[in-house]
Write a structure and sequence with these properties.
Radius of gyration: 15 Å
Helix content: 40-55%
Number of strands: 5
Strand content: 5-15%
Largest sheet: 3 strands, mixed
Length: 129
């Protein structure tokens, strides 16, 4: 029997729900889960090490590597094959309180409470359709 997946801690839900190709019709879609988005954000945007990312998300470093590899594969498929990208889903927990390491964090949900609840405006919902 497989071990149950540990819930991943993310700082906030992304403000953007997806991306799409321009100049052609999309040739399918790819979904990037919230934990995959968070790993990409921490490693590539925030330039953290895998160890720092693992500590922030409260998961192991090998798990960060697996999530990162899957996220990169999905993004490459989206870019090369002209697919739309949606961001959502996954077994995540938005951090319940401000942590010391989040003091200077631009995307911290405690600076914008709507991000912790995943609240989107009506304009965002109509764009998803």
């Amino acid at each position: 029997m497989a071990r149950p997946q540990k819930q991943r801690c993310i700082c906030s839900l992304p403000q953007v729900a997806g991306f799409g190709p321009t100049g052609c019709e999309p040739l399918g879609s790819i979904n990037l889960t919230y934990d995959e988005y968070e790993v990409i954000r921490l490693l590539d945007h925030m330039q953290m090490t895998q160890e720092q990312c693992a500590k922030r998300m409260q998961i192991s470093r090998p798990t960060v590597t697996r999530i990162y590899d899957e996220a990169r594969r999905k993004m490459a498929d989206m870019l090369v094959n002209g697919k739309t990208l949606t961001i959502g889903g996954g077994d995540v927990l938005v951090c319940p309180a401000m942590r010391p390491e989040c003091a200077g964090e631009e995307h911290c949900c405690h600076k914008n409470p709507d991000l912790s609840r995943g609240v989107r405006t009506l304009e965002d919902d109509s764009a998803d359709e």
